[in-house]
Amino acid sequence: MSRGPSRLAADIDFNKDGKQTGFVRLPHSVHRSAYGWIPIPITCIKNGAGPKVLLVSGNHGDEYEGQVALMKLVRALEPKDIKGRIIILSAANFPAAIAGTRTSPIDDGNLNRSFPGDPNGTVTQQIAYYIETVLLPQAEYVLDLHSGGSSLMYIPSALARRFDDPAKTKRSIELLRAFGAPVAYLATSPQGEDRTLTSGAERCGVTHLGTELGGTGTVTPAALKVAEAGVRRVLGAVGALVNPPKEPPPPTRLMEVGGWDYFVYASDSGLFEPYVELGDEVTAGQPAGAIHFQDTPWREPTIVKFERAGTVICKRVPGRSERGDCLFHLGTDVKE
After folding, report:
1. What is the DSSP string of 250-262?
2. Do domains 9-257 and 262-333 have the same CATH topology?
3. Does pTM surpass 0.90?
4. CATH number of 262-333
5. Which residues, listed in sequence order, are joined to residue 159 by a DSSP beta bridge?
6. For residue range 41-61, what is the model confidence (pLDDT) as tens digits?
7. Is the separation of the CB atoms in 240 and 82 below 8 Å?
8. Protein fold of 9-257
């Protein structure tokens, strides 16, 4: 992997007071544009000293709830409303966001599996490198807004990683409760998975909070309400708003998502028939659904089962599934 300065550059000054909107320019020479660049929108709002916050959406291009929430926030916030600096990257993987796809149509890159990136790599690797080496070092907090995208649907949730340091975990839980989603969960990072923005934030010593705000490749009023209110409450909780929300956050159910036994995967390819819905309580060994075979309709379907007890917080959306597709995942209550 190459190291060195990023080839991307923003046309705004992050140290200047006021509100600036512009683009991060990613040089991109192609047949139709020999000296062109990809314009990644960026906003910087600064008002003196104070908290330094990075807000990100569009990490996956087909996750729309966070993108809409941050675009509305860009238009609403003015320097007089904040203390410190808020940088907003509302379409982080811009090619994917414009295409409405999880991954980039240019290099098929999944931005949230591309960190720490490479300044001389593919387009998506270059974006990851810019975020990790330029934007994250300027932040104390990062809020990374995700949802289920085109293939999954979540109970609107906020999430953070569980740390070995109890003080860091406690601070994450405080911010999860401030966000006020119906569900908040602590996730155990899969062994060796260090390619996410979450891991990049850890490497930079930045407090990270994520979300899974809904999904199905659309935007619902309910999920958007959770996103907009949650972002403002978190900004208030870290001291970045002059007038933070006065209403207390709604109650949130604190859960955890542990190892692979929390997930159900398709064992065959076919049409998936779910047996449960979001929010259902399930037990170990309970049938989760059936996979029917279109090419041999007389064949008995394969029944997939839950490996453990828990609450269904995520389910697959498309009926057509292939072996290895995630069908459900569970959460279990945290005992505080």
Report:
1. PP-EEEEE-SGGG
2. no
3. yes
4. 2.40.50.100
5. 185, 210
6. 999 999 999 999 999 999 999
7. yes
8. Aminopeptidase (3.40.630)
